[in-house]
Design goal:
seven-stranded mixed sheet, 10 helices, alpha+beta, 34% strand, 17% helix, disordered C terminus, 460 residues
């Protein structure tokens, strides 16, 4: 006879606990926020880190396949670089071909939580990624592909992995599949997880316990909190207190469904050798006009990683990106202007993106609202910080993330819609609604790095 019984469908107290942690900004149980830079510098000094460009011929265990030209690892694991052909009926450009990263395995991005003195803290890692401009950034407790945590690289085990893979090791507070960069990954997903433990956890020297508010303070600094941490923090169920919005949840979801269903898109994987307009040299694969990005190769030394030395390909973007939410108050309540953005690698045509998401130098015809964001006066810019994108696959990929207040009309072009932060947080609890750039900006709200309403924190 079963002893199990019904219980509440959600933890009503969790959002309040997260809010208390977000309010704890100056100090946590483990360190003061002001001590973090010295701690991170100490972790950088404790190990040797070096990344240098190499010609493709010096890649170890990587090669271009005869015939297809696809770049792959000899094990068939990790990832490959292939081609993709895209045709769309709408948009400034109707068709194009490009290289794309194919990594079908699902990785784990997991943050471990524990209460100290009644306040939730999060176990964060000082992790080296070869593509980060400053190499060492704050990452989740676990940030690992399946190839890594199953030991394909024959390196050391991933620390704290069991909390996210073993049933009963902790209480799961959030667990959702989310996309990565749709412009550069083909249908890539990761599990974004938040797990709470009641047991004692001794942090390795490369790990530290921080409150959500401390993470928020660090999100106000350039290139400190990595992309993987940001996307997990975006899934934290910060429900807020507001139950009103310009559009009901059902209306917002219906609008998005119409946008997703209304795009006539043909996306096909093709051999990398058939990507026209790109030239392969000894050290890079790039477009003839030197726009967008290039494929390069690097050799890496990292004393704190599971494997100390390796070589790998990376995508190197050309130009800094910008990802900005325009917001305005509607009946006193902040609303964000989201767009349904198509990217070649998305699982289902479009995901919700910031109002502006582009690399300005790549555009001859400026996208909507870009000039408004770039020309905004300082008193209208609520947040303006540069963050690195995925440092494990992209070299020096940075975007300028912004919240900009603007009293623009409520009537907006097709493909755009007003939504509250609380509505976006609700959607972030479901897979493949918000793209990675939108989730970065949402993480800044979740952690209290920015408030769109001076009188209230989070989503009131």
């Amino acid at each position: 006879m079963s002893t199990r019984s019904v219980r509440t469908r959600s933890d009503q107290d969790l959002s309040e606990r997260l809010a208390r942690s977000a309010a704890a900004t100056g100090a946590g149980a483990w360190m003061r926020t002001s001590d973090f830079p010295a701690w991170l510098a100490g972790r950088a000094a404790a190990n040797r880190f070096e990344v240098r460009r190499i010609p493709f011929r010096d890649l170890d265990a990587w090669s271009f396949a005869p015939g297809t030209g696809n770049l792959h690892h000899r094990t068939g694991k990790f990832f490959s670089v292939e081609g993709v052909s895209v045709q769309v009926e709408q948009g400034v450009v109707s068709s194009w071909r490009q290289p794309i990263i194919v990594q079908p395995e699902v990785g784990i991005l997991g943050i471990l939580a524990k209460e100290f003195d009644g306040v939730l803290h999060f176990l964060m890692q000082a992790k080296m990624e070869p593509g980060n401009r400053n190499l060492l950034q704050l990452s989740p407790t676990v940030q690992a592909t399946r190839s890594n945590y199953t030991g394909v690289h024959r390196g050391t085990n991933v620390r704290y992995l069991s909390y996210f893979t073993d049933s009963g090791a902790g209480q799961v507070l959030a667990d959702v599949l989310q996309s990565e960069h749709g412009a550069w990954f083909y249908r890539k997903s990761n599990r974004n997880m938040l797990v709470e433990t009641m047991s004692e956890v001794e942090p390795h020297p490369d790990f530290c316990w921080l409150t959500l508010g401390q993470i928020g303070r660090l999100l106000s600094e350039d290139n400190v909190v990595n992309m993987d941490s940001r996307t997990v923090v975006a899934t934290f169920p910060m429900h807020g207190t507001s139950s009103v919005a310009l559009h009901s949840d059902a209306e917002l979801q219906s609008w998005f469904t119409v946008e997703r269903a209304g795009h006539d898109v043909e996306i096909m994987r093709i051999p990398l050798a058939e990507v026209s307009g790109w030239e392969l040299g000894e050290s890079q694969l790039s477009r003839v006009d030197e726009k967008y990005f290039r494929l390069i190769a690097v050799a890496v030394e990292a004393g704190s990683r599971e494997v100390a030395t390796w070589t790998q390909p990376l995508f190197e973007p050309i130009g800094q990106g910008i990802a900005a939410f325009i917001f305005r108050r509607i009946d006193g309540l902040p609303h964000l202007l989201v767009q349904a953005k198509l990217e070649a690698g998305f699982l289902d045509t479009v995901e919700l993106a910031p109002t502006v998401q582009c690399v300005p130098s790549n555009w001859d015809q400026r996208p909507p609202y870009l000039e408004l964001v770039l020309e905004a006066s300082s008193d209208r810019v609520r947040y303006d910080v540069v963050h690195s994108e995925e440092g494990g696959r992209f070299l020096n990929a940075e975007s300028r993330y912004m919240f900009v207040e603007a009293d623009i009309p409520l009537e907006v072009p097709r493909g755009y819609c007003w939504a509250t932060p609380a509505q976006l947080n609700w959607l972030a609890g479901h897979g493949h609604y918000l793209n990675v750039q939108a989730r970065t900006l949402l993480s800044c709200l979740n952690a209290g790095a920015v408030s769109l309403n001076q009188e209230f924190a989070h989503y009131d």
